[in-house]
Every structure is written in C-alpha cells, then in structure tokens.
From TrEMBL, chains A, B:
It comes from Flavobacterium weaverense. It catalyses: L-histidinol + 2 NAD(+) + H2O = L-histidine + 2 NADH + 3 H(+). This is Histidinol dehydrogenase. Gene3D superfamilies: 1.20.5.1300, Nitrogenase molybdenum iron protein domain. It comes from the Bacteria.
Length: 430, 430
C-alpha cells in the first residue's frame, strides 16, 4: 500500500493515474475474426468456439430443455436471492420511466419528446470462474422494462458445451428471448453482423476481457452502439474518524479481488484512520480465497491523507471514481459536491457489494475516468429519445418569419422556400 | 430521380443503402495532427490554422471587443429571429429536466438517481459559406440549462481572422464561456488534449466535414465523449393524396441542398402523388441558388411506391431516417408505429426547416441509420445519470443474506465478507 500525505494538486493526476493497457496487438486478431465472421457466419463462429473454448457444438442455441434442467439445478436459496435482487432492480429501474415531454412552444407549435425502446439488443456475459448471473439481472431487467423486443444473450460454453445454470436461470427469469453459447470476439462479431443463428443487434451491453472490450469498440465502426467504454473496476472511499476501519478495509478488498489491475483508493482527513485501515486490510486479506489477486491490487492501492474535506472533494472529482463510498461526518457535503462518480454509497452500512447485487441500482458503471462524461447503465440506456412536432397554420405563421430570416442568413434558400410556399398558401386562403 | 414500384422486402436494404465514405486515407492525417497538437500545443494549432485556414493570428481567443462589434453588426431582424428560436429551444429543453428518482426498494434501502452536468464541454461550429449559428443555439442552450460550467466553442477563422458575427452573437447570447478561432482537426485535437489556450473538455458536440468527423471519432480513444457518430443528412417523407405536392417537393429540396450526398426519399401509397411531386421538384429546383448541389442529391433520390401503409411503415423502420415527415391521412398510425427516426414532423404545415431552426426541438440528430440506437441531442446529452444509495442497519439485514449468497455463488468471497462483517456487528450490538 502506498501512503501519501498531503499531495500537491499538480501531482494528483500522476498519483491517481490508472493502469493503461495497450491494445494494438489485440486489434489485429479482433479485426481478423470480425472479417471471417462477417464472411462465413456460423462456420467461423464454430471454428473459434472450438479454438478458444475447446467446445464443438452441434447447436449453439440453448434449448428449452437445457433451461428447464438449469432451473432445477440451481439451489433454492440462490433462486430466492436472485428473485429479491431482481425485484429491487425492477423497482428502481421502473421508477426511471419518464413521461412524454409535451410543450406548445408558441401557439400552434406542438413539440414533444418520447423514449422508444431500442428494438434489438445483445447482452454479453463472460464465462470463466465467476459466472456473472448478477450482470444478467442488471442488463435484462431494464431492457424488459424499456420494451426491447429482441434480447439476445451470448455467453461462452465450457468444455462440455454448457453455460452455468445460474446464468440460464437468471436469463429465463428476466425474459431474455434467446441464449447462445458463444463467447469472446466471435460473439461480438456475430451480434454485429448477424449470422445464420446469431441475430444482428443494434446495441451491445456487458463486460468482458480485453478481447471483448476491443471487439465492442470495433463493433461501433459497423453501426452498432455499445453501453460504454470499459476499463478495470475501481473504488474510492472517503472516510474520517466516524468510519469503521474493518468495514472500510472489507470494501477496499472487495474491490481488490476483482483483478490485479483493480484500482483501490482511500482518501482521508485522518491519519489514524488510514493506519487502522491498513492494519485491517492485512488481517482480512490473509483469509481470502482470491488472496493472490487481491494482494496485487492492494500493493498498488493508494491511501491518501489530505488536510480537509474541500481538498478531498476536489481530488475525488478530478479522479471520477466508478464506485464512491462516503463514510464521513460530512456526507451531505460530499453528496452534493460530487460531480464525477458512477455510483455513490453513503454511510457505514452501505457496502459496495449491496449495489453490485441487490439494492436495486445498476452495477454496470463508467470506469477509467468515464464518470466525467458517461452515465452508468440505466433505463434510458435501452431507449432512444425521439422528438415529434406538429405545427398548425397559425403556428407556422407565428414562427415562419424567423425561420425564413435564419435560413436565408445561413445561405439555405430551399429551407426558406419550404416555409415561404406554405405561408403564401395560407395567405391565399383568406 | 429513381421511381421504384413495390420493391420486395429483400431488396429494401440495397435500395435504401446510404452512400458510404472511406475514411482510411483521412485517418493518417488526423492521427498525425493529433500527435503534434498533443506534443506542441498552441504552436501546432497555429501552424495548421495558417495552413488550412490561411490565417495567422496573434491571439485565437475572441475578445470582448470582437463580441461587441459582432452584436452591433448583426441586423436587428436576424437578432429577433435568433431570440425567438432561442426562447423556443429553451422552453422545450427546460421541460426535459427530470426530477430525482427516489425509491426505497425494501425497508431501509434507499436508492436514488440524479442527473448532474458534464462539467466541461466543447462545441464545434463549422465555418465556410453557411455560418451555422443555429447549431450554436441547439448546443449551447441545453448545455446552459444542464448546468455545464465550461462551454468552449471552436470555429475556424476566415482569411482575415474573423468568425461570422451571427455565430459570435448567438454564442454570447447563449452563455458560451469561451470562443476560440480554431477549426478542423486541430480544434478537435485541442479540445481533446488541452493546450495553453484551448481547455481540455470531457465531451465534444457539433457537426463538421469528414476531417472533423474522423477527428471526433479519434478523440473517443483519448477518453473524450462525443455527441454521436456523424453521417450525411437525410429526410424520408411518407405522403398520400392528402399531401400537397408542392410542399412535399419543397421539403425534399431543402434536404437536397445540404450536400450532394444528402439522402432524399419519398414513400407513398399514391402513384399520382409521386408523379406530382416529381414535377414540382423540377419546377422549384430551377430557381435555387444551391441548384448544383441539390441536383446531385435529387439525382440519387428515391421515390418509392408501396401497396399499403403497413408495408410503408416497415420499410421506414428498417431505414431509420434522421428526419421523418408524415403527410398522411393515417398520421397516428405512423406516429405510434415509428421506432427508428431522429425527429418526426407531422402534417402539411410542419416543414423540416421548422425543426432546423425555431420550433424548439433539437436539430442535432442521428443519421446514417443511427436512429435505431442513438438519441438526438437533448438535455440529457449534457448530463450524466448518477446513482446514490444509503442503507440503514435494518436495510442491510433485509438484503444482506441475498448479497452473501449471490457473492458466494459468483466466487467473490471479499464481496460477501463486506456484508458478513457488518451483519455480525449489528448482531453483536444486541
């Protein structure tokens, strides 16, 4: 752990620098697989599934029978936990539905805005040791509320051609329309171009390794939208002497176990707290099954002492953390002043893992400083805001002159004509 | 003009194909200028301003005096028109403000969502023959409502080192914080990296030529967000015998005058209307100052006859037009059924140019099929949705068990520990 006391503002950006990854070498591989999937469809997908996942599958679409088996095999306490999480996520995202915005800007000029669902979406759920069924909930639940009518989920099969049952259970529970056993670059390429089996979608959501991240970026060059740019997960905690060191340490470690490149930062106005948290981390770290991973992330972590809360807030806004925990006497000060953070957790009894799983907020959040300019996934991520307008004759008379003048000043005569013709017709009716 | 009768659905995508541009040759230039601006700052910007705009400027920041001169030189009828447009845009975008979403998902678990402004934004306004002061309104007005505190506008100077007075007038009227005389790739690079004079921003908005478009795409690789991917402007009109052919023709032409690559499409259930519109286009085209440009776009335009409105709607949703005008007896059918369009104009007295300038809706819209997955610029484009949560002891007891079970099932023990520690502490208090 690196303890840093009173860093000067001009050193903040280097202290808070994130680990950057070079993707140039990956890009060539991704482009090649994209080309092949675009040209050869399912057969290219099968080739790479065999190569990367070691599975040869007669059929990549998960069958009704496989879903039924999965539903039976998931333990009932896990089912109940998933159902509670789903219920909370549903409540919070349903509350995000916005009414039509309707304004008569001047008499006879009616303008409105409506959100309409993105019709076809793809969800990517990684495989591997940690089956992220929680991410299925975070993506499929709002997609369903938004009204997306085609929700395709791709996840890599294991060597036996299976997807983790909890993922299938969650997908079925949340109304995913199709589950496909395909992962990695070939999954993203399939969703981008469409194949005989994989539907082409308009937007792709979900986490993934470096290959998936680069593939999602490449997909945007072919007209597909993505949820947000990805990066290693990160947590920043601001804490003072009202915080409980063991709790703070447990939150820092829950971030650290994600990966060796996870970012873990504590900012405090109390040197005493910093020392206490440092000690607690050592105690708790020793018994973690993912100790090796967490240890590496913790080695790079920063424990930063600053003179006062004002400086702390400035530093935090400059960093823009994905997750931001506030355990401070002055939590209102931080809540009101934080502009750059993905999701904010307030108080000693609000661990980050609550938001990761079950409180109702979304866990797909902007990392890598993108909290400065991107929203986390929310209901609107699955919709587009469309505008409508209907103008009466009276309305056109009210704004027509202004349009003519502006169009002429911009040198666009045909824009002006479209109004002039109509105004003349109205005039002639009299 | 190409008249097409009853095209089969499997030919739609080729009939409606958009002109694609290759950007590979531009990319190298853009990358080189980015590198140089990143390294050398203002001096690199000055070099390219001299090279591309033919202007050598002692100072690229527009002064108070230049603003004052511009305000004096804009004719008063244009000022009034701009003020009316601004007032309507302000009304419509202010109505888009969303209240905090606050939900207690289960007892003691409080979750809320708030929109907070993106703090630093850049607006790009092209120079050239058509000074797009209307775009200044469309971007700066919602930015101001959202509460962005740094609004930087870049626009290329003419050979005399000047920016069009109407652009300066609009920028000043709308509260732009800084106007810089810099255009093209060097402007986007400056906003991306920051220079001695140009502030680094978090999100870049605004139209531009191919170079600017590629530069904006490249900016996203350096952590900057952009409004949306760009493409040539497009208009699709659906019209039947209730439409007025001269009006329809005038709208098609107002789209066509944007550029030779503009997309102009008419879909109709009436052959009679198609013929009448074709005739009207010839009559109106002849007197346009931008006839040469419009003629080229019109030559590529499509007049498509289909058997019925159901087929028409399917075809339109497959295309996903940026601008969609409905002049039909069945306007409700189209309004309710359209899922993929940027902005919708309803009725004979609602020309597209109303939305381009003064009705109140935004004219920065998704083109090139992006209406399927992107919103047009709206108030939320200038904000990020952030989530907050505060959980009481009681709340954690209500959801803690579910979090523990899910974290364990995902193999994330430290996530579980963060809850277990707290639940034990609560238990021990008893």
């Amino acid at each position: 752990m690196n303890k840093i006391y009173n860093p000067k503002p001009d050193t903040w950006s280097s202290i808070l620098e994130r680990p950057t990854k070079t993707v140039d070498d990956i890009e060539a591989t991704v482009k090649e697989i994209f080309k092949e999937v675009q040209k050869k469809g399912d057969s290219a997908v099968a080739k790479y599934t065999s190569l990367f996942d070691g599975a040869i599958l007669p059929n990549i679409e998960v069958t009704k029978q496989e879903i039924d088996e999965a539903v039976l095999s998931v333990p009932s306490d896990l089912k109940e936990a998933i159902q509670l999480a789903k219920s909370n996520i549903k409540k919070f995202h349903t509350a995000q539905i916005t009414a039509q915005v309707n304004v008569e800007t001047v008499e006879g000029v009616n303008c409105w805005q409506e959100k309409r669902p993105i019709q076809k979406i793809g969800l990517y759920i990684p495989g591997g040791t940690a089956p992220l069924f929680s991410t299925v909930l975070m993506l499929a639940v709002p997609a369903k509320i938004a009204g997306c009518n085609e929700i395709v989920l791709c996840s890599p099969p294991d060597k036996n051609g299976k997807i983790n049952p909890a993922i299938l259970y969650a997908a079925n529970l949340c109304g995913v329309t199709k589950v496909l056993k395909v992962g990695g670059i070939q999954a993203i390429a399939g969703l981008t171009f469409g194949t005989e089996t994989i539907p082409k979608v308009y937007k792709i959501f979900g986490p993934g390794n470096q290959y998936v991240t680069v593939a999602k970026q490449l997909a945007t060059q072919f007209g597909v939208a993505i949820d947000m740019p990805a990066g290693p997960s990160e947590l920043l905690i601001v804490a003072d002497d009202t915080a409980i060191p063991a709790f703070v340490a447990s939150d820092l470690l829950s971030q650290a176990e994600h990966g060796a490149d996870s970012q873990v930062i504590l900012v405090s106005t109390s040197k005493k707290l910093i020392d206490a948290v440092e000690l607690e981390i050592q105690i708790q770290l020793d018994v973690l099954p993912r100790k090796e991973i967490a240890e590496k992330a913790i080695a790079n972590s920063k424990l930063i002492f600053v003179e006062n809360d004002k400086i702390a807030l400035e530093l935090i806004n400059e960093y823009g953390p994905e997750h931001f925990i506030i355990c401070s006497e002055f939590d209102d000060f931080y809540c009101n002043g934080i502009y750059n953070a993905g999701s904010v957790f307030i108080g000693n009894y609000t661990p980050e893992s609550a938001g990761d799983y079950a409180s109702g907020t979304n866990h797909t959040l902007p990392t890598n400083g993108y909290a400065k300019n991107y929203s986390g996934v929310n209901l609107d991520s699955f919709t587009k805001a469309m505008t409508f307008q209907k103008i009466s004759k009276k309305g056109l008379q009210n704004i027509g002159k202004a349009i003519e003048i502006m169009a002429e000043a911009e040198g666009l005569q045909a824009h002006k004509n479209a109004v002039t013709l109509r105004l003349k017709a109205i005039e002639n009716e009299k």
